[in-house]
UniProtKB/TrEMBL annotation:
PROSITE patterns: RHODANESE_1, RHODANESE_3. Gene3D superfamilies: Rhodanese-like domain (3.40.250.10). Residues 13-123, 153-257 form the Rhodanese domain. It comes from the Archaea. Keywords: Repeat, Transferase. Signal peptide: none annotated. This is Sulfurtransferase. SUPFAM superfamilies: Rhodanese/Cell cycle control phosphatase. The keyword Oxidoreductase does not apply. Its EC number is 2.8.1.-. GO terms for molecular function: transferase activity.
Length: 258
């Protein structure tokens, strides 16, 4: 499973994992980064011209990670400075291109949380040579338009809109519940809320581990964070609608307001 790791966990393993910083390049160079981190800015792996949804395409992804010295068998920890939402997108992209989920980790908190207590650097990281080989995952959480449409009438499935309440009110999939991804993070610590709080929030929304969960937002960025959180909490039946509302509306899927 993709999991969420603490700064203590990472500090003990900095020499054994590949740390990926997905902030803008100027932040990586100018503000500083975690020791040993490599820079793979979010806009480098976000493309509407690649595979389904906003995935960058297999060749583009392989070239990008190879150039950053990341191999397909590396243990990877990703971080950003936005509560993990962009880093989570990186990790889910890696998962969808066959990276072992047990080797994918989201740093709890983000750069700012790390920077409060630990060393950062502006020194360039030496990038080792690597050839990133994409494989087809044995299982994929991806679901398409038809699968989501069929799930609307399934009482064992909960459709989850991870956008903010105002967006949800403007229009959402029929029967979808609203669970803003930011509800799961603590603004002060910049990391996930305590487990008991997370369970309470998820239970209140009807998002429970005994149900199938289908996630969507607008362009699959925000659902990446919720996907990682649910994976970390042990949910084992979580579907990822990569096309999200962008594709849904383009294909005239039903949308309700209010």
């Amino acid at each position: 499973m993709v999991d969420v790791v603490s700064s203590d966990w990472l500090a003990d393993r900095l020499g054994d994992v590949r740390v990926v910083d997905v902030r803008d390049g100027w932040e990586f160079d100018g503000i500083g980064h975690l020791p040993g981190a490599v820079s793979i800015p979010f806009d480098r792996f976000r493309s509407a011209d690649g595979d389904v949804g906003m995935l960058p395409g297999r060749d583009a992804w392989a070239d990008l990670l190879s150039g950053a010295g990341v191999a397909a068998d590396d243990d990877v920890v990703a971080y950003d400075d936005t509560h993990g939402v962009f880093a989570a997108r990186f990790l889910v992209t890696a998962l969808l291109y066959g990276h072992d989920s047990d080797r994918l980790h989201l740093l709890d908190g983000d750069f700012s949380a790390w920077n409060r207590e630990r060393e950062t650097t502006t020194e360039a990281t030496e990038v080792a040579g690597a050839v990133y080989e994409i494989t087809d995952p044995a299982e994929t959480p991806l679901v398409d338009f038809e699968a989501v449409e069929a799930a609307l009438d399934d009482p064992e499935t909960v459709i989850v809109d991870t956008r903010d309440p105002a967006e949800y009110e403007e229009g959402h999939l029929p029967g979808a519940v609203n669970l803003d991804w930011r509800e799961l993070v603590d603004d002060e610590t910049r990391g996930l809320k305590p487990r008991d709080e997370l369970d309470s929030i998820l239970d209140a929304a009807g998002v429970t581990a005994d149900r199938r969960v289908v996630l969507y937002c607008n362009t699959a960025r925000r659902i990446s964070h919720t996907y990682v959180v649910l994976s970390h909490l042990g949910y084992d039946d979580v579907a990822f609608y990569e096309g999200s509302l962008t594709e849904w509306e383009a294909r005239d899927g039903a949308v309700v307001e209010g």
